[in-house]
Amino acid sequence: MFELKRLSIAAIPAALAKAEHYRLLNEPEEAQSICEDVLRVDPANRAALVTLILALTDTFHRGEAGVVTRARELVATLGAEYERAYYSGVVAERRARVLLDRGGPGRFLPAGDWLREAMRAFERADAVKPVDQDDALLRWNACARLFHQHPELMESDHERTGPVVLE
What we know:
This protein has 8 helices and no strands. By secondary structure, it is mainly alpha-helical. It folds into 2 domains: 51 residues; 80 residues.
């Protein structure tokens, strides 16, 4: 096996710019690799953590095992309560959107559950947001619009599997 080479501290800003560039080019694996290199030398680097989380969500459509869990674990390491809530919402919302895009029967129940989780996270973020920060509100509204576009998302697992009441 090859031993990974260490990134210099001075190269971190340029590396993070490259990681963002690769995300925009729809090459999330390249972005992930760069973020991993940054985190090896600066484990608490907020920008690398956020970019890595977002790059992982860019791969949700592939259905690779453990990616959602890894993204959630990284979110839990973010320092600020606002960021933990906001990015928890982003992870859940992006998971829901992937389920919706896949199509087929049975996609609405889990997608609706993920969207509700996202909206709860965005509400938590909105409650502790910085004064000039409405990103959580914007994301909450985007989720609400998905419910408006797909009313079948409103059905919950409880409603579907609830007890049958006989008269």
